[in-house]
Design goal:
about 220 residues; mainly alpha; three-stranded mixed sheet; 9 helices
Length: about 220
């Protein structure tokens, strides 16, 4: 498997959850929207490029297509197709019987992220840059875990809110992808907390990630 496979699998989980939230909140679609999750500042022109999911309409089947996943993750259609084939070959994804759309095997995904990801795709903080907060500095974990380090961890990005130690995301398009999807931002920040954290931090992030992915 490749690192972008994890990004796509997490995106599929997010799409599935968004679909469920739409069905549960047809009368009040704003309840399906997560607030206060942004780790960046966008100008009006920049914001237009990152239009958030309109929760007044359902997630369409096209969102799961290679074209839809390319648009939402920045991963090319050919890489999306290859990624889905790899994930299905090892049991990390499958086609839903009813919808005929790709679906993540959440249990297998959680097991791999918690027990294997940091060994296969280790994270190593480096230079101080401007970027999007990740790991325990991201909104999903902010204030919940203490750190003795002087600098937070960020994904390098020119519109990021914070200065911190650069951490390469799982895939180069992650900073773009998370601007379109609050849940994907949560998931990938928690993944980084598992990759970067010590025992307590990593365990807490793992529990939080599992709770969210199984929601």
């Amino acid at each position: 498997m490749k690192s972008q496979d994890i990004v796509i699998l997490l995106k599929l989980v997010s799409l599935n959850q968004q679909s469920k939230l739409y069905e549960e909140n047809r009368a009040q679609p704003s309840k399906a929207y997560l607030h206060g999750w942004e780790g960046w500042d966008l100008s009006d022109n920049e914001a237009n490029k990152y239009e958030l999911q309109d929760f007044e309409r359902p997630i369409l089947a096209d969102s799961y297509s290679s074209r839809g996943l390319e648009a939402s993750t920045g991963i090319s259609k050919s890489e999306v197709n290859a990624s889905l084939k790899r994930s299905m070959a090892v049991g990390m994804a499958k086609m839903d019987r009813k919808s005929k759309l790709p679906k993540s095997n959440v249990s297998a995904l959680i097991e791999f992220i918690i027990h294997g990801l940091k060994y296969v795709y280790p994270a190593k903080p480096s230079a101080i840059v401007r970027g999007i907060p990740t790991s325990i500095a991201a909104p999903v974990l902010e204030g919940k875990l203490m750190t003795a380090g002087e600098f937070i961890h960020v994904w390098p990005d020119p519109v990021g809110k914070e200065m911190g130690q650069s951490v390469l995301p799982l895939y180069k398009t992650v900073p773009m992808a998370v601007k379109k999807d609050p849940r994907l931002y949560e998931y990938l920040a928690l993944v980084d907390a598992i990759r970067l954290g010590k025992g307590r931090e990593s365990a807490y992030a793992a529990d939080e990630l599992e709770k969210r992915l199984r929601a």
